[in-house]
Every structure is written in C-alpha cells, then in structure tokens.
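Structure, all two chains, one model.
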Amino acid sequence: MSLEKIRDPERMRRWPGHMETDYVYTVGLAGERFFREIKDNGKFYGTRCEKCGITYFPARTFCERCLSELKEWVEVSPRGYVEMYTIAYMDLEGNKLEKPEIWAFIRFEGVFGGLVHKLGEVKPEEVKIGMVVEPVLKPKEQREGSITDILYFKPAK
Amino acid sequence: MIIKRKVAVVGAGLTLFRRRMQETSRELAWEATKMALETAGIELKDVECVVMGSAPDAFDGIHMKGENLADGCGGWRKPYTRVFVGGGTGVFVPIAAWWHVASGHFDICLAVAEEKMSPCHPHPQWAFHTIFDPILSRPLGVNLIWIFALEMHRYMYKYGIKKEDIALVSVKNKANALDHPCAQLAAKITVEDVLNSEVLVWPVQRLDISPITDGAAAIVLASEDVAKKLTDSPVWIEGVGWCLDSRYWTNRDLAYPKYVEYAARMAYKMAGIHNPPKEIDVAEVYDPFDYKELHHMEGLLLARKGEAPKLTKEGVTQRDGDLPINPSGGLLGVGNPIAAAGLMKVCEIFWQLRGEAGKRQVPGDPRTGLAQAWGDLMQIGTVIVMRA
C-alpha cells in the first residue's frame, strides 16, 4: 500500500528521527604539510613516486600503484587549465542560486591529478575548455589550512 | 562439499591502535597493507584481488568508505570488494578472501580491515544509537550498552556468576596487552580496580569495556602452490563459519550465543575438529566486554555452558594455561577499532602458529588456532580455524 497520496508526512503514523552525527576529521600526514604550505606560503605541492614516475597532486602519503611512501615533495605551479566545467543553477537544498556558479576540474602541468574548484571573475559564457587559470587565495591572516583558503580560480593574465 | 584448493596466510600487518590518530582512514589502511605485503615478500603488482572490511560508514564519517579507502587497501585497478557484517566483519574479511582463492579464481588475495572511530564527535555513541530500530527502540533513547548490560546480567543470573569472576578476564587481557607493541589500553590492574570503576549501565562498568580506537590490519592469502613458494611456514585456513541469529533482540537467548555455536560447528566440521577444547591450542575470542569472552568461549564449545568463568579462575585461559585465550590482549587490552580488531585477532593467530609472537608467544608449539568475531545487531558469529 502506498501512502504517496498523503502529501503531508505529518499525517502518517510516524516516529520522527534524525541520523545526524558530528565529525572532526584530521587532514592526515600528507594533508598536514599540503595545507600548511597553502596557508603559510601560498604554495601548491605534490609528492613524487620515482619508481612509477608520477607526481601526485594534491600531495599524497603513498603511491596508489606501488604503495611506496612518497617523501619527495615537489612545488607545483599554481597556474592550471580548465579540463572541463559546469554551471550550477541550484544549491544543495534545491533553491535557485541568485547568481549561477561555475565549477571546474582544473589540471596542472607535469602532475597527475588536479582540483575541482570554483571559477570567478569570469562570466559563464566566457569560460573555455583549456583556459589557463590561477588561484585567488584568502588574505593570509584569514587562511585556516583548508581547501576553502582558495576562494576561486580566475583567468590568468 | 568439495573445497577446490587449500589457502594459506603468508603475511600480516597491523598499525598502532590508538584514539585520535593523525593519519586519515586511508593512510591507516596503507600502513597495515604495506606491512602485510612486506612480510609476505611480495609487491602490490603481485596481488590479484583485494577484499576490504570496515564497520558502519558512520564511524569514519565517510559515506561509502570502502571506495574512499580503496587506494590505501591496495585496490587500484584491481577486483576490489568491501564486505560487511558489522562487528563480525574483521573475521569475515579473511573468510571472504579465502573463498576468492579457494574457488580457484585468484592465487593471491589481500585482505584489509580498517576503522577510524574518533572522527565521530564527541563520541561514536550517536552512530551506535542509529543502528537500532527507529520504531520500537530509538524513541526510548536506547544506548548501545543497554543490550550488553541485559545480556551480561542474564548470563550472571542464569549460571550464578559473580562480577569478580568476570572481571578476571579484563585483568588477564589488559595484562597480556603489556607485551603487544600496538596496544592502547595495556595495564596491570586488579579485580578491585574493575569493581570500583565507574558504573556505566549496570552491571557494565568502565573497566569491563573496550575503548574507542583507530587502527587497521591486513593479511595476505595465497593458494597452496604460491604459498609454498613464498614461505616455509604458511598458516593454512582450514575452517570457516558464520551465522546470523534473529534480527530481534527480544527473540534471542541472552545467556547463550547459539549463532556462535552454529558458526563454530561449520568451521570445526570443515577442519575435522571433533573435540574443540583438546584440539584448539590457542584462541582469539571476541572480547569487546569481559563477559563476552566467557560467553563466546561457551558458544565456541571451548567451555561447557556457564563454566568459562571457572576455567578463567583456574588459569586455564592464561598464556601458559592449557587453553590460552586472547594472548594478544584482545579488544580489552589492544583496543577495538571494530573491523580491524577482528582481523588483529587473525594476525595474532598467524604469528602464534608461526612462533613469531615474541613475548606474547604461548608455549608448547601451538599447531591449531581459532579466531572469532561477533557483531551486526549483536547477532552474528564469524569463526576461522587455522593450522600451522
């Protein structure tokens, strides 16, 4: 029997529940240094596996292909390019956004990986695949060692 | 039943067991995995498939954590599966890994278990609360320890067991853990310390119970031909069993875990064991609470009903006793990162049967060992029997 015709769930015999639990996550061994470099120095780092010839970005603790510990930290140029993008018109709750948001998968030269982040200072119709972008960070005193220390990426000059 | 091929454990790895580890969940899994591969003398490229196990996503706080942890478990571009039977998962992981190899489909399978419980803040109690039925139990404000308290009290009432007899298990296991380099709660305590500790939900007191822990464990399984090439001392998996009881806690015999007996009988039959207390040389029995070790010894037919406390009192279950139980220090001493705790027990039997347990080694060259875990909604038993 379906109760779908009851549009107001409060009219069903029910017990209201919630499954929210709160969490505190560590950023981990590689994350600790990766985010500290962004917070303190505004720099991006990857880690290199000499055996597999790959530099992972963002930096990781171990190589997924051979499980070697990655001890070689390599500075990565913050200028990347747009691999692909999308435009969001609704937020997480399904509400219409006042201003559409551009979200892009950004790759960086010479490394394996990249970042998904927001694009700013650019209109949706101006975004191009392959476009070179650079990060805009929060003012140093406001950074807290988080992915949101990067406000967005903008078209590079 | 025809078992196609023999399967051996050829390597094992374990992380520190601690609360609030800095490592991410996948970094923990990687540490255990790397150690297991190194001790097996193989590299990740030699691994043909991976089975991982972890208890509810709500502990690590990563939905679908099997996928999130895949690289740390060595799952990159390999057949990779997560198995789950709640708290019984840690011993179910090697069971699932066993059938991957016994089937003839793979020669080398990596088995990894991980749990990071401290992200759930301030305490995983809220995650445990939501395992209960939302209609009949949760509206009452049910607390996980209720069910243990009801079970422990029923066990005490039925057989006339005193709390001081149960407390001996906690004293033994925490002392055993003093020799375990990964242990979280190793301690020299007395029965009085247990009886004087804070009452949580009577009769469960603070020192009757295992802690909140982060950790990971891993083992490598290989087919007979491959195992014999890799090592001179493979440890064979000779029996596996698992069984789930009623989903209703009101429909179970609280004093005796019948489902553990069924799981054990399945494993014993396969291993050709007819007299478990005589034929099992060392056992790692699931001990998230002190009374559970006794409860499970009886379910595993290692002691007669109601008589496990007597064996404990007589010292039979000490490391140098006739039937050493939890020489590692168990969950009470080493710690309880749910799925990883079960696999830690399998690692311990592996080391015991190879004579590699160091200060924890039980005397007398043990040949046959057993590891057991328990869980889901307090109704599953998972059992593995191993031979040197």
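Chain A has one domain: 28-155.
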